[in-house]
Description:
The protein has one helix spanning 28-32; strands at residues 2-6, 9-12, 17-24, 36-41, 48-53, 59-61, 69-74, 79-84, 93-99, 109-114. It is mainly β and 115 residues long. Strand 4 and strand 5 form a beta hairpin. The N and C termini lie far apart (36 Å).
Amino acid sequence: VQLQASGGGLVQAGGSLRLSCHASGSILSVFNSNMMGWDRQAPGKERELVAEISDSGTTNYADSVKGRFTISRDNAKRRVYLQMNSLKPEDTAVYYCRSSIPGSWGQGTLVTVSS
């Protein structure tokens, strides 16, 4: 299953972006029963969890993004979204969609927040 992430770009501090990830090649029932999420990796730093959402809709966020980011999923479309508000320069990173679907992989999308 290929995880196709999109929606990154350049935005000023305080602005918003919405990332989207499509699980291409996933059988609907498989997508629906797996956790989806977003990680990020900033230059020179380790990859970290940003947010995740279970098959039942339970969400989990990194402390650094709580209250600013919202993760959601549309199972019928096999998509997961990350709404990012009140962006800060420290949010600058490559954002990767991830999944508990075995064998899933994908490239990230770059988010750059200018001060």
